[in-house]
């Protein structure tokens, strides 16, 4: 579903990714772990199409398409979703308004009819229920006044509404307390654990992986994958740290 080959990327002339290769098949969840500055967020931004990240070598294929040849909105319409480590606030724009416009924009790009207001609210209520979020929260401005955990849960509601084929989730567990961590983990499973979907889950810690069981765990260091293994690799990293594998 997602195939990254020999990817090199830099920001402001600084090399960040140095020959990263990775493949995630349909129905799979892969976790990426690694020390600070390893290039984890850079990888997420490159896949999402964030401006300012220059690809100097390599390729990324998503669902048979050249992902790097698509604009960010085209990637979203093709089914790519990027969850941010720090979701932004958008004063003056309600979550409901934002999400309906985002969904219908993608539907139009795929040649589908936009959802009516009533159908959208029904869908939003269903997805909010998965994350145990009151619909009143979705009527508020996007992330304004939300706690860290509420922002992450709102973003998972957004993922549920947009129903992507592939989700790149950048430290979704950041800022979550114990209960929110479980709820978000259950939400990811309910939305994305499907045979035709895939997830790349970027995290510093093993704790989210107790709920979202990965098929593979990869260690990213110095801009490339240096070790891969099963879910037990995350437990090993939790015990021993990155020093031996990221040297």
UniProtKB/TrEMBL annotation:
<dbReference type="Pfam" id="PF00005">
    <property type="entry name" value="ABC_tran"/>
</dbReference>
<protein>
    <submittedName>
        <fullName>ATP-dependent transporter SufC</fullName>
    </submittedName>
</protein>
<keyword id="KW-0067">ATP-binding</keyword>
<dbReference type="InterPro" id="IPR010230">
    <property type="entry name" value="FeS-cluster_ATPase_SufC"/>
</dbReference>
<dbReference type="GO" id="GO:0005524">
    <property type="term" value="F:ATP binding"/>
</dbReference>
<dbReference type="InterPro" id="IPR003439">
    <property type="entry name" value="ABC_transporter-like_ATP-bd"/>
</dbReference>
<keyword id="KW-0547">Nucleotide-binding</keyword>
<comment type="similarity">
    <text>Belongs to the ABC transporter superfamily. Ycf16 family.</text>
</comment>
<dbReference type="InterPro" id="IPR027417">
    <property type="entry name" value="P-loop_NTPase"/>
</dbReference>
<dbReference type="GO" id="GO:0016887">
    <property type="term" value="F:ATP hydrolysis activity"/>
</dbReference>
